[in-house]
Amino acid sequence: MRAFISATLLCVWVSTSSAQPSATQAVQQVQQFYANIKQVTAMFRQEVTNNTFGSTKSSDGTVYLMKPGKMRWDYLEKKPTGVVVKKSFISDGKDLWVIEHDNKQVVKKSLQQDMLPVAVTFLYGKGDLTKDFNPAIDTSSSYGTKGDVVLKLTPKQPSAQYKALYLVTNPTDGHVKESIIVDSSGNVNHFHFFAPDFDKPIKDSWFEFDPASVKSYRIVDADQPPPQGAPGSGAPAPAPASNK
């Protein structure tokens, strides 16, 4: 779950000069920007590449973020009757709900018990990326296009979730065009963001979820161990479904 959530970063670097910023300056400006905004809406395309098989799966959708700690990711699918929501990740800052309409399943995860990493909390103006990551300006990456600023963040402590985190930013106004997580196995979770809007009104109700609205769905509490004697009862509690 953390890898997914972290992979969904919408980061902004604000530049007042055409000169390439230092890594420290870029990270500081990213955090300062997010400390001052209240919300963001954007469209996204996600490309998940499996390093072992060399296969890539893509998805499209819309993301909404609002302080304090609220987020919603709607994955969309085209059907003959129109565009429908296939899957959603919804959080009010206290709980995370993963709603999978194809599988008719809902997974709930408490964020009080499982605190989010700083790679997510800085979006709400909290935390310090430089405490967990070593920043660098990447000039050799294949990510981004000419003129973009590519910020590479390497975890200070070994992590299965992050081998490296890349943020591709537009130096004109600082919005993030892409965010990329490469995990320890070389798998790549790549987001492209389009048409970010920091002023469009967002309703609090968009970050709320009522299980009663999907009465026929299976509800899984990821914070509870499986019943004794049940299949997998010796394994850790199930985690919210991956976005892969």
Distance between the termini: 11 Å
Would you state the CATH class? Mainly Beta
Specify the number of helices.
4
Report the helical percentage: 10-25%
SSE order: HHEEEEEEHHEEEEEE
Q: Give the integer mean of the pLDDT values.
A: 79
Question: What would you say this structure looks like, in words?
Answer:
With 244 residues, the chain is mainly beta. The chain is built from 4 helices and 12 strands; from the N terminus they run ααββββββααββββββ. Strand 8 (149-155) and strand 9 form a beta hairpin. It is globular.
Task: List the SSEs and their pairings.
Layout: H1 2-7, H2 23-36, E1 39-50, E2 55-66, E3 70-79, E4 82-91, E5 95-100, E6 105-110, H3 118-121, H4 129-132, E7 133-137, E8 149-155, E9 164-169, E10 176-182, E11 188-197, E12 218-221
Parallel strand pairs: 6-12
Antiparallel strand pairs: 1-2, 1-11, 2-3, 3-4, 4-5, 5-6, 7-8, 8-9, 9-10, 10-11
Task: Please sum up the structure shown.
The chain has four helices and twelve strands.
